[in-house]
Fold:
Amino acid sequence: MRQSRDVIADFRSDTMTRPTEGMLRRMVAAEVGDDCWGTDPTTRALEERCADLLGKEAALFTTSGTLSNQLALRVHTVPGDEVVLDASTHLVVYEGAQSADLGHVVFNTLGAEDGLVSPKDLEMVLGGRARGPAYAAPRLLCLENTVNWHAGRVLPLDDMRRLRSVSGAMGTATHLDGARLPNASVATGVSMAEYAATVDTVSVCFAKGLGAPFGSVLAGPADLIRAAKRFRKWYGGDLHQSGILAAAADYALDHHVDRLAEDHENAVLLAGLLGGNPLLKPDLHVPMTNIVVVDVTATGLTSEEFVAAAADLGVLLGDWRPGTVRAVTSMCVDAAAVRRAADRLNLLAHRATATV
Structure:
């Protein structure tokens, strides 16, 4: 990607943050042991805190959201089992290869409108294929909240409760990829524990909107978390003095959850500034959380071309679905930078059509 030296806004992802001074001090001062031996006090304290925060019996600190999700697949399924999930989820789009290689599971995908799975979607997909002793058996429903692929939409709590009722009646466990669950919680006022109460296991990422440099957590019943810890070791995910990194996650929980509201406000600001331009069409003029997906086809540029041209102007975007780009607001981009970035993107759109 060509990139201007004068980067005024990095919207590629909310992972593009750096530890704050306070977070770095917490990391340096962390009391550590050896978590492979179960003796790192900072990591143990973080896991206990997250279990309480999510209303679960136990929690496990992991290197990434992908690892948390893969551990969830392993503890809920055996090779050949069926996992039901929407085609737009992170597990399908970004973790399909891992899930096949490590979990040996069969994905039964559905195409929910805007990625918001409904009980009707679930009933249709569960009943839409042959069942019998020789076929894959549905063992796990995987949900995502917020829905990354669909502009950070929030799956409503009532819908999650109804989905749990349907999946439970069919003997299917439920896992929530809650990488951005803190965003959903701040946007709706619903606690993370209330969301987590509708599922058996839940993962939350510290390295996205919360601004930590590393890590995720998987929470659920104690027996499943013990099993997940075994698989974490198998996958090479155990760390020794992990407390240094757990301290950053702990700091993020202390200081960076409520401030997610600023990211949401900046996403609304950005969508509004771009939405007034007929050449740029945000999926949602009022984003639910911190993700803005913009249709750029009217500019005459491909999404790849638009991203490259924006980078030349100091605005870094993600090349998203064909004809669309993604902008994710985070703690590294303030409202003033959002306004400057929007001015440049609007200018780029008009310049592009003028040369077509």
